Amino acid sequence: MINAFCKVPLWECNxxxxxxxxxxxxxxxxxxxxxxxxxxxxxxxENANIxxxxxxxxxxxxxGHTADHCIGPDTQxxxxxxxxxxxxxxxxxxxxxxxxxxVAEYARGVVPHGTTGIFADxxxxxxxxxxxxARCMFEDARRVPLKAMxxxxxxxxxxxxxxxxxxxxxxxxxxxxxTWDNVVGLGEMMNFPGILGGExxxxxxxxxxxxxxxxxxxxxxxxxxxxxxxxxxxxxxxxDHECSRPExxxxxxxxxMYVQLRFGSAWLNLPGYLPQLLASGVxxxxxxxxTDDCHPDTIVRDGHMDRVLREAVRLGCDPVTAIQMAxxxxxxxxxxxxxxxxxxxxxxxxxxxxxxxxxFRAHQVFIDGQLVAQDGRALFEVEPYQWPDxxxxxxxxxxxxxxxxFKTRVDLPDGxxxxxxxxxxxxxxxxxxxxxEVPVRDGVLCADHDADILKICVFDRHHxxxxxxxxxxxxxxxxxxxxxxxxSHDAHNLLxxxxxxxDMALAxxxxxxxxxxxxxxxxxxxxxxxxLPVCGLMSTERVEVVAxxxxxxxxxxxxxxxxxxSPFMTMGITSLACVPExxxxxxxYVNCLSFQMEPLLAD
Amino acid sequence: MINAFCKVPLWECNxxxxxxxxxxxxxxxxxxxxxxxxxxxxxxxENANIxxxxxxxxxxxxxGHTADHCIGPDTQxxxxxxxxxxxxxxxxxxxxxxxxxxVAEYARGVVPHGTTGIFADxxxxxxxxxxxxARCMFEDARRVPLKAMxxxxxxxxxxxxxxxxxxxxxxxxxxxxxTWDNVVGLGEMMNFPGILGGExxxxxxxxxxxxxxxxxxxxxxxxxxxxxxxxxxxxxxxxDHECSRPExxxxxxxxxMYVQLRFGSAWLNLPGYLPQLLASGVxxxxxxxxTDDCHPDTIVRDGHMDRVLREAVRLGCDPVTAIQMAxxxxxxxxxxxxxxxxxxxxxxxxxxxxxxxxxFRAHQVFIDGQLVAQDGRALFEVEPYQWPDxxxxxxxxxxxxxxxxFKTRVDLPDGxxxxxxxxxxxxxxxxxxxxxEVPVRDGVLCADHDADILKICVFDRHHxxxxxxxxxxxxxxxxxxxxxxxxSHDAHNLLxxxxxxxDMALAxxxxxxxxxxxxxxxxxxxxxxxxLPVCGLMSTERVEVVAxxxxxxxxxxxxxxxxxxSPFMTMGITSLACVPExxxxxxxYVNCLSFQMEPLLAD
Lengths: 603, 603
Known about the structure:
2 copies of one chain form a homodimer. Chain A is an alpha/beta fold. Chain A contains 17 helices and 30 strands. The termini of chain A are far apart. Chains A and B meet through helix 1, strand 3, helix 6, helix 7 and helix 8 of A and helix 1, strand 3, helix 6, helix 7 and helix 8 of B.
């Protein structure tokens, strides 16, 4: 594939590179005396010398050949003695929205960790503001050196007919997106039932991507590696990050599918399959690394692709193999191996100088030959992005939430009622469809704090007065107070949960006022707030600030009585109608096995 | 890259493949119980079951999963018990003209040997009839299942200004060729001095190919692996078959260049570098296999890519690694890994059933799921191609060669004269620039059979009466009689060599009459003749017939006194002005170090 992510197309600068390689014209940058991580040969080569021009590698001096002939008076000379030079790391599948910042700010966070490219699926923004929103989100990215390669979201809405979303994306939209210069493939095709069932739109989106000669990324969650997986791959879906078992990984590799081995903030799959994968001895050429979702605190505290590489090596992976996964393999997955992913002549000069191949701490990071980060700090500043109003005014509730709004009225006498409840177990993504008794007082179904049965409501925030909202119950969180968030997969409606209507109302009001985000309320007081005014998903603040706010809200969860890990994530997927068993959308309960709506009252 | 070489584009048939994989619609073909050579994981997997539809793999049953659910009443079921199923072999660089038959007939010869795809550079036809000729040559190929992927010739003429060729190809022509559906890259960029010297046309051809997102193949012959090679690769040239030493191969791989490891009819490079390459332990992902030139007798007697694989394994290469080189690596070299090169769902069903992984004898060969060869025989017939007249009338000498034509007149008295002579050593491609004394009789420079100094002449066969011809001398062949051929690299003018003018005249007349080819004449009698009426390069007969005629002319060479191996090849490159030291073109002697013309008389 031709890519728009190099500073200068090779066909415009090959004559100059030829002259620089031969010392007839000076290089822009020369990196001397590095230990080269050669991902094409799987070697570490001592004393490598790299000359860069037009953002590309012009000359690679090995075997005692210096690049001194490429040095002129204005050449920036970098002494890399003692450092490894590896190709810049690439995340083969990421939703930047999970980091709660825009792509430019995200870049400021991840580039110092050696990440030079991401293959990003703006699925969350797509659900709120459609492809136009996704496009707008990536305009922000053009201000920073990170290569933010877009795979537009394929599944908006994730499931048809059970909720109200802010947008819908069809095959014809994908066809148009394939003409954008920053689109390199299709975002994860979560609708595998649609593919297997021959749905026109699902197959059509894949077809439009294939016509554009781009890669289709997948999402095949079920532990099945025979007919369904075959059909899914035969449809043209060539990469997948949804493996949980070693046999899932190996089956995909044998079927020619790239696997995006995942180690994100919440989904930590690497330990679950990498040791067995390595022990099997199979060729890892189709293995890439990804985070999928990376929370702001993970970036600030632990890093990004360097963290994934660290984990891979900790699990026994040879470091050069791990780097291959994060570089050349990823580039090839997206048909870009001839443009990036290795430090070789003609390729983009995306280079990380590393202290070692164990911690993968990046001393310096170059993108297109430009020094963009050093010793953990980005060398570029990110000014606040001028978001258009339609990206920052997405709390269109059409009502003013009060305590009254949250009262679930039923035509029942005082006492108790049997209701359907989403049962949550710590660390599990699956919810359980259970029946419990809750109090009925004055014709209102009530939460029961002592029994850990909380009320939960989903408000359509996209359609104003025409929107509907729903009420349900959940057990497992064990809090006193209320939490609300607009990060509620995948429609990102307003989700409010609590043990009393007053706190729930305050939580909802708070988010309605600040444009969305996350909030914790207890006894009429806001304990913590993360404002996410861009689509109700992303902050306009710096990632460090967001991380700090997120940690405060995490503390609030604990203070409110929750002992669950990542309760925010878990709450955020109580509305995710594509994962079993019972979910609550703004239209009400969805049985996620039958995809039928279910009533609140049991029996 | 999107390719036009699959029966149905994936975007047109993915819905059907999905149904077939799930048993909802029958497959066209099911191959059962094969030992799968998995080139994506580097494994051999027992009891693999492959269902094929629309020419593509729809289902791959492993781990005990049969493909029985894909079998309907009309499904062709193949029992592959005891056989290995490997992806079809691909030759990453081949000049079909060296096989002296058209591409369709060539296909009949090589497909039974497991070859399902070739990346072919019609360089010889290009020199005679330009890109139009190359295009015409590949129209013939559309009649057969072999995937004849074209890389149009980049260097026509090979060297500017020292000879008269039938055509010239410029960057603008390449730009047009890149729009043809069967063009997948640029043919070998032999003009590496042009690239290194920044010549507009050489760089421009590369630029046009890169703009079309296709691969540029190379030809970098000098034993240099530093600045020049760097510059050459940085220019965008991504594959090369011209290595002779292990260090040449490893340097290219480290620089991210694909290497087309060669084992052709005349250039047998594999033994010279493969053992050392394997011993080095480097990743072989960028290694492909090629023949470059494959003579008809090699095809008939020894095979094609099966022969190359046999040699690789004989040299110690793991058979699965060798098959990777001939399949997935080659596909990836041309940005086609997502379409072909592995037996995985969605890919073209190009499959070879092999008896073992040592001899690589092909039991059955499938292309796009169609059985096309069995037990060494093609299952398709090739009718004679209706060549247009301009492809078969290329002997435009503009004169009737007689003995008088060959008399080299000089203004010298009887006795001897010191002349420049091309010195040939057996098995070497380099010629030596030597000075010898030859007899002068009646103002004519004469050959001297006893001293093994033959006369050699090159006739422009492209420009008729406007053409010029030249005369020179050669030593090393040691024959009595005359030989003539129109396969004379790269202009493919008429080359005539002998120890007497009468036999030379008969040889030239014979080829002029039959449209070109090769002929051996002694004492007024034609000993052997290979008619090559298509561009003076290719026969219209079957490859077995051509091989038989070639063997007869080889015998004639021996009978005439030549002890050199492959004298026909060696004679054919006495006119190749891009290889040192001294060559004779139709304009006269060329010093191939300085690229200056040289006079016949020394001093």
